[in-house]
Design brief:
It comes from Strongylocentrotus purpuratus (Purple sea urchin). The protein is mainly beta. About 15% of the residues lie in helices and about 45% in strands.
Amino acid sequence: MATICSSLFIRLLGFIILMTYIMGNVHATDQVPDNQVWTPATATFFYGQPKANISCKFLGTPYGVYWMKGSTPATYTLLSRIQGKVSGPRFDDGSLTITDDYSLVFNNVQAGDEGNYICRVSNHNGFVIENNTDVRVLEPSVIRWAGYTVNLQCAFRGTPEQVLWNRVQGPSVETVLRYTSGGYEVLGDRRYSWSDNYGLIIRDLRVLDEGNFTCMVSKTGGSKMQTATVLTVQGLMSTMSDLW
């Protein structure tokens, strides 16, 4: 009887030690199942943003993590972190790096950083697992000429339940466009209209159109996101005065 109890105790102790080791090596989150990689579906950065990052989460300690850009894993590797050492062309030029938790960090975001990024993980079982993030780069400030047309973008993926375009001027907030299951509505000036992908088009721009425009998206499950753009309209008279 004592031998059986001793054997069960040793097995239980071994299980506890194993679980402690596994849990101690969860670099991202214990919500990610084994042999799976989690990255955000989309990420939106601003042009010139000093720092921005994409997380890559998985269970356990990897042999290597590789960040690539393109539509398929066959694309070349931008940089990698293998046994603690970071290397790659985008690491060498200082534009990208990988943190200790394997997140991809952008230094001084550029327009060319827009695209699809793949996080590929090689683990202790030798499996190569991956996931991807679609990155969009937006201008925090858009400058256009009076009389012309501007198309302000709203960044998200999937089908929304509701999209609101709000114009913010000081304490005043005006909803100029609204999308719901009932369809597309134009609530503001008639020069405003919808573009593809829920963008806001403003035709025949006027200086009075200047302001902060925010696209607010509500999705199934209660998730919400927003994209903000500052619109500046250059008038002819102000341009002429700058020349003198």
